[in-house]
Amino acid sequence: MTDSYREWLRLQLAAEVGVREAEQTIESSIVRRGWPAMRPLGSRDVVAVLQDVYTSFRNTMGDARADRWLEGATTALASFAESTPSPAPASTGTIAPAPGPVRWGRRAHDLPLLLARAHAEIAVRSLEGIRANPDLKNLERAAEWDVQATQAEVRRWETEELLSNLRADHARVEVADQVRSARSQREVLRLTVEEVEGEARAGRKVGPQMAHNKLMLSQTDAFLDAFAPLIDETVAAEDPKAPNINLDSSRFALAVPMHPNVLRARHQLNYAEWQAGGVNDGRVQNARAALVQAEREATAQTENTLGAARAHQAAFQQLMNRFHDAQLGHAQLSRSGADALTLARHAFDAEQARLAARVQAHRLNEALRLLNALTGNAE
């Protein structure tokens, strides 16, 4: 079995560090991750090795040059992946058993994941059968793309499950932040009501203002009565954090050729070529057009996800600046002897900024998980 991706990686690294060190770098990454020494590498394995090299290059070349190298290598890998399927794993010998009767409330993606895993195993078995039959040699390439497409479909549904669990975890933290924020809001409203009551005793007409603040206070109390007993507020004790990651499109170039729909379209093109025996056949032309459309849609999806991630990243930074400014302002006012209502308002503003920053960090993390599921990037 050829090891095309290992050879591509060796040539890519040799251009920077020489053949001997390139081979040592690859072997070091393989040993560190516990991969079988003789197992052929796939595109996702290469991404992992590139990340190791990138980390090393940042120390020896500096961030700017290392960034340029990684962007170029990732783009080159994406181009290579368009023409070279990753090696197929050996068959496990089993197909996922059919589940029992579906329980009410079963999550919608459980059954598609079982189906995707069964398809992936069947595709591997089919490829092994094709390789064992010389009469089907010309079908091997199409079968290799079929294996890669089915594995990508498995990753798609595994990612859905991962994101479902991640969003649930994020929701728990966000509700805890809302409880924290509501406590700060209640303190502001309580002190505001006391202040307005003082104005009323002084003979000022503050009826509408009083009624509005009392209504908001009662609503905030109702929220806290309902949710505070249900929430573990310690899950939101730490301030929000978000990964500081370069979101340049070139870093995620592999997301398009590794998209499940693109891999499926590429398999169908190779299968059409095998059936037709010529590139001018209508079936081949239709399959090629479908591949172009799948690549266009995958590119748009990737760019939309990257655009959302960039927006979340920028919003997170702005909100964290607002949070830190509010904290600083609160500390300065406290030292200068400001009144309780002014301090409460600054504390509430800080809590609101903190909550909003947390939401942006969570949405950024979810977008990155989706992109990384396609590219295999663990950064």
Give the class from helix and strand content and strand pairing: mainly alpha
- Helicity level: over 70%
- Counting DSSP H or I runs of 4 or more residues, the number of helices is 10
Return the average pLDDT rounded to an integer: 88
| Radius of gyration from the alpha-carbon trace, in angstroms | 28 Å
- In N-to-C order, the SSE pattern is HHHHHHHHHH
State the name of the first-level CATH class of the largest domain.
Mainly Alpha
Sketch the major β-sheet.
none
List segments where confidence is low: pLDDT < 50 over at least 5 consecutive residues: none
Query: What is the CATH topology of the largest domain?
Result: Outer membrane efflux proteins (OEP)
Distance between the termini: 30 Å
Rough outline: elongated
Number of domains: 2
CATH-scheme architecture of the largest domain: Up-down Bundle
Count of β-strands:
0
> What portion of the residues fall into strands of 2 or more residues?
under 5%
Organism: Deinococcus psychrotolerans
Protein name: TolC family protein
Topology:
Layout: H1 4-17, H2 19-33, H3 43-60, H4 63-81, H5 110-131, H6 140-201, H7 207-227, H8 260-276, H9 282-335, H10 340-375
Helix pairs in contact: 1-2, 2-3, 3-4, 5-6, 6-7, 6-8, 6-10, 8-9, 9-10
